[in-house]
Design goal:
Radius of gyration of chain A: 14 Å
CATH superfamily of the domain at 29-109 in chain A: Jelly Rolls
Number of helices of chain A: 0
Structural class of chain A: mainly beta
Largest sheet of chain A: 7 strands, antiparallel
Order of helices and strands of chain A: EEEEEEEE
Number of strands of chain A: 8
Oligomer: homodimer
Chain lengths: 121, 121
């Protein structure tokens, strides 16, 4: 069991092709004993973005603050604080931050469909 | 796939013994096709609380706004916006709201250890 604040947890730059100005903190993950899913916090700087990609596991996302867009179903859709986004497995997606940056939670299952540990879980 | 805002989604009172002044909205769940975990939003009125209980599945919680306390490890601990709480399976817990009320996300696996669907998923 644990209590950690997203604004007091060190974040690490996301090192992945296609990423610009994004950092991540794993808030609850496999090493904390989470048996089913992991909770990560992302910050994307103004003008930054996450990779445009798809993978064999889903995302459940919550927009904490700021603003931006998510690519989903082939179109970019506006995001604001309080939005919940469900991105099923194998759907192409990307998050882009607007002027004020974008802070969001992104949850993933700890195991992908192929049975391997999910990256960043 | 979907985008829904927690402040624009109708909430239903939580009807359960030991609950006072709590409402819930299922934001992403089994009916949306979520294969592994469900995302719910809770609001607890000032002075209200969730049940003091334990169950065979974990919670991952994010405090969106307001203030309150969580019973965890036998003690009540202060909560503030941005806090992430991990409550492992079979750990007794309860959320209590302070003067400004408490709004939080609470995620659960869609299937409990016994194999049944998790309530509220």
């Amino acid at each position: 069991m644990l209590i950690r604040n997203i604004n007091e947890t060190p974040m690490s730059p996301v090192q992945m092709e296609g990423v610009k100005g994004a950092s991540m903190a794993l808030m609850v993950g496999r090493e904390d004993g989470a048996p089913n899913f992991a909770l990560r916090c992302f910050k994307v700087e103004p003008g930054g973005h996450t990779p445009r990609h798809a993978h064999d596991y889903e995302h459940e996302v919550f927009v904490v603050s700021g603003g931006g867009e998510v690519l989903l179903g082939g179109a970019y859709r506006e995001l604001k604080a309080g939005d919940v986004v469900y991105i099923p497995a194998d759907h192409e997606h990307q998050f882009r931050a607007k002027d004020q940056g974008l802070q969001f939670l992104c949850l993933v299952p700890v195991e992908r469909q192929c049975g391997d540990p999910t990256p960043g879980s």
